Structure of CRP-like cAMP-binding protein:
Amino acid sequence: MSALWYFEDVNLFKILCPHKYPAYKKEHDIDTYKKSDYIYFTDDNANKIYLIDKGKVKIGYYTEEGDEVIKAILTKGEIFGEKALLGIDKRNEFAQSIDNTTSICPVSKDTMFQLMRDNVSISFKIYKFIGIRIKKLERRLELLLFKDAKTRLLEFLDELCEDYGYECDQTGDHVIKHPYTQKDIASLIGTSRPTLNSLMNELKHNQIIDFNRKEIRLKKTA
């Protein structure tokens, strides 16, 4: 088992990366990207799945008017391009590095299918991951369509708490140590940075949250 390298993602289960698995090591390399580099574009062939070793990647698309819509921002341990496993031949989104030191392990669709056939546990984890990802995206789109910016922010903070939060024993607050910048969060909830700053300060003033550059605290309610 020590010959296998696992990434741990924010959904609390692990995805196998084959480039350190002896049978596949020679066929897989780590690719590096700088900020603003694209990993793939809309309409590219969907023949690979990608695992993030380090850095951050944004997934999104452009509207007919040319506006950018961010669907997700992913970090170390997460996978993307997973729709290739569902029989989709062309990308309907782009993937772009938003960090100057992003490293990614690309895995061909055929290799991933072989790994899944050889290990039922891997297959189950990948499909569970895809199901969770789809559910989160559907919820985010619903919020963008029907909820105001404050509600979207509160829902996003709850989601962050599930993924990155822990309870502080001394205060009872939930502490969220997350990898996102304010620009990332504003993009994900579909608002501007000034609006996000205003909403964060309003929540802080009302003692719902506290925050600094490193963490967000969801204050314990009475």
